[in-house]
Amino acid sequence: MTTPFDLHGKTAIVTGANTGIGQAIALSLAQAGADIAAVGRTPAQDTVDQVRALGRQADIISADLSTIEPVQRVLDETLEKLGALDILVNNAGIIRRADSVDFTEEDWDAVIDTNLKTTFFLCQAAGRHMLAQGAGKIINIASLLSFQGGIRVPSYTASKSGVAGLTKLLANEWAARGVNVNAIAPGYIATNNTAALQADETRNRQIQERIPAGRWGDPADIGGAAVFLASSAADYIHGHTLAVDGGWLAR
Ligand code: NDP
């Protein structure tokens, strides 16, 4: 018996699939039945091995997504190696921290290019394919800073607000043509990205006390949301940014 969350027969691109949230999303999609193109600059061998151990197909696609140069090749290699494309998860992302008065153009461009520009052009390339086949799911990884200002992360906040806006725009354009574009806004998730915060005893305690659920998120919490948005259970959801944050934004 199949469930609405069944992804057998589907193929997903996941960017930044070697670690953290991207790896958890790739494994969750594979557990639901999807084959995985694990895209990133560090080869996602561990992820691919784990996906194959689940009995799904998986391949590494090497690409530095700090520019849009590899975007079309990522699509072409996915179709060549895995034979289909049904799901795109734009997860790869970086953050740079400095006071806004001191923020450099380099730190602005690096974050905007990776988090926002490449995300858009991957949506465009995958969108062309999905529109032609009349079906597809795109999931962009946003942030709490798609909704809140944050501090000392101007390019990150701009990029993630941009991701949420872009998600709505693409949904407007593509919803009637069978392509769902949505986003997930993770709260505080325990990954390498947040290792310094977790290691700082005071900050760690403050964060946990501020989260209604009383704990950091696990990357698998984001994987579950990705399975939902990638599945037919989400066919009528368009342009939404789903906070998976232990209640942070509810406070
Ligand atoms: P990690 O730093 O653990 O992972 C980031 C991933 O992005 C890595 O796979 C990394 O690859 C990849 N990446 C970065 N730059 C590039 C690039 N130029 N080309 C290809 N891949 C690249 O972070 P998380 O797992 O925590 O974050 C994943 C996403 O979730 C990001 O978009 C982040 O902004 C978002 N997020 C995370 C939150 C958290 O609390 N952890 C909260 C809100 C949003 P490599 O290993 O090669 O650097």
Any overview of this molecule?
This is 2-dehydro-3-deoxy-D-gluconate 5-dehydrogenase KduD. Its EC number is 1.1.1.127. One of its GO terms (molecular function) is 2-dehydro-3-deoxy-D-gluconate 5-dehydrogenase activity. The protein is 44% helix and 15% strand. A seven-stranded parallel sheet has the order 3-2-1-4-5-6-7, with helices on both faces. With 251 residues, it is of the alpha/beta class. It is globular. Helix 2 links the parallel strand 2 and strand 3. It has one domain: Rossmann fold. The model has no long low-confidence stretch (mean pLDDT 98). The termini are far apart. The site of NADPH dihydro-nicotinamide-adenine-dinucleotide phosphate (NDP) has 26 residues, from helix 1.
Give me a quick take on this structure.
The protein has helices at 20-31, 45-53, 71-82, 105-133, 154-174, 195-199, 201-210, 219-230, and strands at 11-15, 35-40, 58-62, 87-90, 136-141, 179-186, 241-244. By secondary structure, the protein is an alpha/beta fold.
Any idea what the CATH architecture is? 3-Layer(aba) Sandwich
Q: List the ligand species.
A: NADPH dihydro-nicotinamide-adenine-dinucleotide phosphate
**Main pleated sheet:** 7 strands, parallel
Question: So what's the CATH class?
Answer: Alpha Beta
- Compute the number of strand runs: 7
Q: In the CATH scheme, what's the topology name?
A: Rossmann fold
Shape: globular
Low-confidence region ranges:
none
**CATH level-four homologous superfamily name:** NAD(P)-binding Rossmann-like Domain
H-E order: EHEHEHEHEHEHHHE
What is the alpha-carbon Rg in Å?
A: 17 Å
Q: How many discrete structural domains?
A: 1
Q: What strand order characterises the main sheet?
A: 3-2-1-4-5-6-7
Summed up, the helix count is 8
Strand content: 15-25%
Helix content: 40-55%
The mean pLDDT is 98
Protein name: 2-dehydro-3-deoxy-D-gluconate 5-dehydrogenase KduD
GO molecular function, one term: 2-dehydro-3-deoxy-D-gluconate 5-dehydrogenase activity
Organism: Sphingobium soli
EC number: 1.1.1.127
